[in-house]
Amino acid sequence: MRRTSDIHIYDRIRNQSDQGTPKEIMTPELLAMLGGGISGFVMKLIGSQMDHQARQFDRMITSQQYADESADAAAKRDGGVLVRRFLVVCTIFAIVIAPFVFAWTDVGVTLSRETNGFLGLFKSVQWHTVQGFVIMPEVRQTALAIVGFYFGSSQVK
User: Fold this and answer.
1) First-to-last C-alpha distance (Å) of the chain
2) In whole angstroms, what is the distance from residue 21 CA to residue 10 CA?
3) Alpha-carbon distance 109 to 114, whole Å?
4) Is there a contact between 140 and 125 (Cβ–Cβ < 8 Å)?
5) Where would I find the H helices in the chain?
6) Bridge partners, residue 116, by sequence
7) d(CA 31, CA 38)
8) Where in the chain are the domains?
9) If the chain, 157 residues long, is cut into consecutive pieces of 10 residues, what is the mean pLDDT of each piece?
10) Hey, is 40 helix, strand or coil?
11) Across 33-122, where does the E strand assignment appear?
């Protein structure tokens, strides 16, 4: 009888760990392995993004250096300054001086005007002669560009 009771006690001790606890799905080793893999992936992703940003910044610095070299080369040329000054003088003449001069003369300016015909289908062009000087929209836009250029360049200095 002793032998059967010893076997019974032995079986009871051996199966004791399986009876009281449920089976674990995620062991601590598995959790540590998964956590390490995920954190490694995240760190590599962050590192690659940092490398990409560093390369992009280097390209931006290089392109800015090329732009600076081009601007320096353009500033060394004397012809561009004279051409710009000539254009400014012509534009100021066309906006300020010419209207006063031509207002006192009998010089006529011919303008075209497009008219709509029957139901807007047939268009015709009519020509009118006016006395004085006409400032075209292109001349006004040029004057605005000149003012913007000179005010903008004075802000940089």
Assistant:
1) 109
2) 19
3) 17
4) no
5) 2-14, 16-20, 28-76, 79-92, 98-103, 137-156
6) 123
7) 11
8) 45-71, 77-157
9) 59 57 68 84 91 94 91 77 82 80 77 77 81 76 82 61
10) helix
11) 108-116
